Structure formats: C-alpha cells, structure tokens
Amino acid sequence: MLLSLFLACGSAPEAEPPPEPVAEPAPAPKAVVATVAVSGSVGVVSTKNKNEEDPGAPVAGGFGQVSGELKVSDFAQLSGIDGAVVVPVSSWDSGNEVRDERLLRTFFEAEGNPQATFEFAAVRGLPEGGLVVGQPADATVDGRITLHGQTVDVSVPMSVTTYAAGHTKLLTETPIDLSIASFGLGDQLAALIVECGHASVEDAVQVTIDVTLTPAGG
Predict the structure, then answer these.
(1) Please, which residues bridge with residue 150 across strands?
(2) What is the CATH number of the domain that holds 39?
(3) Is 25 a member of any domain?
(4) Which of 1, 131, 193, 202 is most open to solvent, judged by the fewest CB atoms within 10 Å of its CB?
(5) CB count, 10 Å around CB of 6?
(6) Residue 37: inside a domain
C-alpha cells in the first residue's frame, strides 16, 4: 500500500538531456588570387625657361606602353597586390623627334636604363564593402617608383572605377609632382639644358597616370 501511494504521488527523476554536439569551426575561405594584366599610359609635363618675369613654357610628353602582370588576392579591394608595372623608357613621346632623341640619350640614358617600374605597396581608402560597378571611389595608392637605378616611395591620390566588363581603371584626377633630383638625375638634367640651349628646366615635373587592370579572361 505504501509503495502504491509513493508511486502514485511521486514522480520519476527526469533524465538528463544528451550533451549538445560541439560545433566544428567553419574553415576559413580560401583567398582567390587573380592574375591581372596592366595597360595604360603616363603623362609628364615639365617647365622650361621659368624666371621671375616669365612663368616659363610647359613641355608635355609621356610614356604610352605601360604594361605588367600582377597577382591580386582581393580584386574588389585591390589588396594583396604582388608584381610590378613596367614602363619602357623607349615609349617616351613628346611629339618632337629631336627633343625625344636628346631626352632618351642624354637625360634618361635609355640604353643602360631601359625601363621604369612601379611596385604596389597598398591601396588605401576604398569602401569597406569593396568597389561597386560604375561608381568611382577615391583612394590612395602607395608604392615605389624605380627609375635610372633610384627608388622613390610615393603616395598617389587616384580615382578608382570598376566596370561590368570586369576591368578596373585607376586615374589621377590631379597631377602629382615628382622631383627629378630625387631619382639622381640632376647631372643629366644639367647636361640636357646645355644641349637644348635652355635657360633652365624646372626640377619638379607634373605626372598623370591612367592605367587599367584586367583580370585574366576579363
């Protein structure tokens, strides 16, 4: 009787729930490295015969055969860029054959210094979510220019736009100033001034950059 009453009024102890399975951490996504071809041009404007009374005369020219192949780990953010952009010095053209021959021989000394290069260090300031097709974004491109055996660090403000076709364009909306002397070309500039019969040529040149990055198959 007491046993029956205990069974009727009491309750069996609750069973402990089975332990929840431990979730395995998701594997980190693998970085997709894109092979990217580079094309474009570099414009240069120098000023000759400037003095206190005369603002001088601008002389425009440029390199029209910018090329290269890069590896890019995140094309939307232009991060993890490895490789160099190559500028053949022989592609210089100012529209004046005599001037160009003197520049290539006396100033650039192109025979022994056939190319300039640019190596990306970082692209800063792009939107956190990455580039949006057709919407230009401001960014700063950090890198290293090597010319005539001298390397100079630069930070270049650029407009960056990606397109539905898959390529991305980087463009300087405002020229940047570079110093001829910073590349160790002071003596070459002095020799060029004498050969051309100029009163002077300014050390600072204004440089514009227009390059396109196109993923392989794009």
Answers:
(1) 147
(2) 2.40.128.110
(3) no
(4) 1
(5) 9
(6) yes
Q: How many domains does the chain have?
A: 1
Tell me phi and psi for residue 75, to 5 degrees: -70, -30
- Note the pLDDT tens digit of each residue in 39-81: 999 999 999 999 989 999 999 999 999 999 999 999 999 999 9
Does pTM surpass 0.85? Answer: no
Domain presence at residue 2 = no
Give the model confidence (pLDDT) of 111-144 as tens digits.
Answer: 999 999 999 999 999 999 899 999 999 999 999 9
Domain ranges, residue 197: 32-215
Residue 43, both tokens: 């414009």
Amino acid sitting at position 84: A
- The Cα-based distances of 200 to 9, 46, 48, 80, 196 in angstroms read 111, 11, 6, 43, 10
